[in-house]
Amino acid sequence: MLKALELNGFKSFADRTRLEFPSGITAVVGPNGSGKSNVVDAIKWVLGSQSAKALRGSEMTDVIFSGSRSRKQANAAEVTLTFDNSARILDVDEEEVHVTRRVLRSGEAEYLLNREVCRLRDIREIFAGIGVTTGAYSIIEQGKVDALLQSSAKERRLIFEEAAGVSRFKLKRQEATRR
Ligand code: ATP
Ligand code: MG
């Protein structure tokens, strides 16, 4: 379903870089420190990872390319995920869904849905219940298998609720009762 990933100024990706994921399995290989985990960080970042620590940094602006001996730092980081939505799995009536997150050195940040500015909540809503939100089971990182096996009944229930599509209704109920 994820068709492409475009990075610009994100972590070690100083230049605009586009990765395509044709159907089947894609493996990303490379020497230590070459940016493999940064690719995963980029996906998590767009899906709304709010904690800088989850992305292995301490400030939200730490994701911006910080410069190297031969290049000056970037002023902004931008990542776009392109999803194939022909099966309308995402609740958006488009064949393709583009989700962009952008952050400037000043700290200013925004999300775009199909190239129009939107709220983080809009992003969360279209992804809720399909198992791709951060913390869900779609990204299994180092140590995650262990953590799943050792999770409490309550934690495990949340994982099943996400998989079963219950969490999207919980999110909606939370919002309805807040008003
Ligand atoms: P390993 O095989 O060890 O897991 P990896 O391919 O996963 O390595 P990453 O952790 O993705 O490597 O990349 C780490 C590199 O990214 C480091 O060289 C680090 O300096 C660089 N990096 C991280 N954040 C930034 C940033 N904001 N600006 C520039 N470079 C960055
Ligand atoms: Mg790594």
What is the spatial order of strands in the main beta sheet? 2-1-3-4-5-6
Which parts are unreliable, with pLDDT below 50 for 5 consecutive residues or more? none
The CATH class of the largest domain turns out to be Alpha Beta
Q: Which term fits the overall shape?
A: globular
Total domains: 2
**CATH architecture group name of the largest domain:** 3-Layer(aba) Sandwich
Q: Approximately how much beta-strand content do the residues carry?
A: 15-25%
Main sheet: strands, sense, barrel? 6 strands, antiparallel
Question: What are the SSEs and their pairings?
Answer:
Layout: E1 2-8, E2 17-20, H1 36-46, E3 76-84, E4 96-104, E5 109-113, E6 116-118, H2 120-127, H3 144-149, H4 153-164, H5 167-178
Antiparallel strand pairs: 1-2, 1-3, 3-4, 4-5, 5-6
Bound molecules: adenosine-5'-triphosphate and magnesium ion.
Adenosine-5'-triphosphate (ATP) binds next to helix 1.
Description:
Helix content is 27%, strand content 21%. The chain has 179 residues and is α+β, with helices and mostly antiparallel strands. It has 2 domains: 121 residues, 3-Layer(aba) Sandwich (Rossmann fold), CATH 3.40.50.300; 52 residues, no CATH class. The chain has a 6-stranded antiparallel sheet. Magnesium ion binds next to α1.
